[in-house]
Task: inverse folding
């Protein structure tokens, strides 16, 4: 089977990519305890610079949306300066990197907010549990887990503040030297919480109909594209995912509304999580890619349990223009070469997925 389709150039929006292998965002918890990026993150991304595009780990736009210990933010001047060091290393290695803009909404524990409740579209808790911040006697290793709590339903002032936070973060991403930005509208975080009907029970202009539920996303895209050329802006979505208590009554209609919105704003791409096999996320019974293609003329990146043959099949079949790989990038900094030349992939040590420093992060060697 020829793999040429995966390694052919692609112009996505205004970005020229040498191949169609995208490094998916991977939260690895290597920033400082104050959420400031560290130089080792630049080394990590530079090792993977032969990807057609690197999408950074989820990067919080505001302290209220940060609920992951040692994940990075981009709301302060200190963070901008630190991220500039990271993007400089990627560019020196010949790579391209977008900043994924993130707010966790209801999935933030009060432990990260000085005891205050997190915010969300409605007072409905996420399902499951998440990592709490370390206690005073923490000496490394995995963090304690706590269940999600019922959030405070957002007022209009909260929504206005959130939209402005995305705008500030987008401006900061440009100042930090990123080549573009991806809006994180997937995986059960705040934008996804507004989009899906199970988590959005609002009775105002942001809830009810699908047209109302995409309103926050519309405003966020407007705030981001005020600072970043739409040809360098993407959107990540997972409309069929039910993880963490998500769910929508009509994912196909939601997908069409999102696609129409992205088309109107002229976004470069939509990054669709629609797995070809169940794993981190379930393979959907009713895929929505055809609904997205019907409404959106930009590029589509597909994500979810792909290997080289399935990636090529999706590109050649018109279901994707590029494919993003997440977990394979953990232990394979030279993933593009390994896929192109058919070398075996190294296994990741997940004991160090979210803890540690260089170990399990920058110490995976290239093939041979």
Result:
């Amino acid at each position: 089977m020829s793999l040429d389709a995966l390694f052919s150039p692609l112009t996505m929006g205004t970005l020229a990519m040498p191949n169609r292998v995208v490094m998916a965002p991977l939260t690895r918890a290597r920033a400082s305890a104050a959420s400031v990026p560290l130089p080792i993150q630049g080394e990590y991304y530079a090792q993977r610079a032969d990807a057609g595009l690197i999408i950074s780990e989820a990067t919080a736009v505001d302290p209220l949306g940060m609920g992951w210990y040692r994940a990075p933010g981009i709301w302060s001047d200190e963070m901008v300066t630190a991220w500039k060091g990271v993007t400089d290393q990627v560019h020196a290695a010949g790579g391209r990197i977008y900043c994924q803009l993130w707010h966790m909404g209801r999935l933030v524990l009060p432990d990260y907010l000085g005891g205050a409740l997190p915010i969300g579209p409605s007072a409905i808790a996420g399902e499951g549990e998440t990592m709490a911040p370390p206690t005073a006697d923490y000496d490394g290793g995995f963090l304690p887990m706590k269940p999600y709590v019922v959030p405070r339903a957002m007022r209009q002032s909260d929504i206005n503040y959130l939209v402005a936070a995305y705008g500030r973060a987008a401006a900061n991403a440009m100042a930090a030297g990123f080549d573009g930005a991806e809006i994180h509208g997937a995986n059960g975080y705040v934008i996804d919480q507004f989009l899906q009907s199970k988590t959005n029970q609002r009775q105002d202009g942001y809830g009810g109909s699908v047209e109302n539920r995409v309103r926050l996303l519309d405003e966020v895209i407007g705030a981001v594209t005020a600072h970043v050329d739409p040809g360098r802006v993407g959107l990540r979505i997972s409309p069929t995912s039910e993880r963490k208590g998500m769910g929508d009554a009509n994912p196909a209609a939601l997908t069409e509304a999102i696609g129409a919105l992205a088309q109107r704003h002229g976004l470069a791409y939509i990054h669709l999580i629609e797995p070809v096999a169940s794993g981190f996320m379930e393979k959907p019974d009713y895929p929505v890619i055809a609904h997205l293609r019907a409404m959106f003329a930009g590029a589509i990146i597909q994500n979810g349990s792909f290997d080289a043959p399935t990636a090529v099949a999706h590109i050649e079949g018109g279901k994707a223009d590029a494919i993003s790989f997440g977990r394979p990038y953990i232990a394979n900094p030279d993933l593009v070469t390994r896929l192109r030349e058919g070398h075996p992939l190294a296994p990741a040590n997940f004991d160090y997925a979210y803890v540690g420093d260089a170990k399990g992060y920058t110490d995976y060697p290239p093939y041979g």
